[in-house]
Amino acid sequence: MFQLTLCILKPDVVRSPRLFNEIIQLILQRQFIFVKSKRLQLSRERAGEFYQEHQQNFFYSRLVHYMSCGPISCHILGRENAIQEWRSILGPTKVFKTIFEAQDTIRGQHGVTDTRNCGHGSDSIATAQREIGFFFPEFDMKSISKYENLLV
Ligand code: RTP
Ligand code: MG
Description:
With 152 residues, the chain is an alpha+beta fold. 45% of the residues lie in helices and 18% in strands. The two termini are 14 Å apart. The mean pLDDT is 95. Residues 54, 59, 62-63, 93, 114-115, 117, 120-121, 123 line the site of ribavirin triphosphate.
């Protein structure tokens, strides 16, 4: 099924033009369409809101601090099975898992810690809708079929 997902490239990636370009090229190679892109810096409040489901987790303040420490790059990606495909290219959240089973992923190659792990990807259709709305409130989710037709 053709899907849209939200991809965030985290501050460490945006800070490094070489790594940023490498990841953009990889996304294109894997046949994703960049539907919309936006570079922005989150305030602590907005970062906290985005990750509010993790409010009770020990890593919440570390995560909010990190995600608001510099610009991030947000993308609506479109593709067949985009949600799962982007998460599998990204690799596991936990760095230790990438050592044994997912070296050949973005996080496996470039992840530094469980927080500084290069990117974010929506985890379900409902989450993707909510997260796309958070960063791209002007985007009409119903226009999805328009992007599907761009695929060859
Ligand atoms: P994501 O949402 O980024 O795709 O990753 P996920 O679902 O696989 O990870 P989740 O467990 O939902 O974690 C949410 C965010 O918190 C960061 N995190 N930091 N120990 C830590 O410092 C820690 N653990 C998780 C993750 O990098 C993710 O951005
Ligand atoms: Mg998550």
